[in-house]
Hints:
Low-confidence stretches: none
Largest sheet: 2 strands, antiparallel
Strand content: 5-15%
Structural class: alpha+beta
Amino acid sequence: MAALGPHRASKVCLYLTRLTGVDRGVLRTLLERELAESHAQAC
């Protein structure tokens, strides 16, 4: 999460301070991993 850039996180939310400071590759990887995890739990 540190590689993501400036952000805050709670249990269920991710607050991005500025989109320009966010590493989009890291964000994409994080979202893909969480999406796969949620699909696996739903099945």
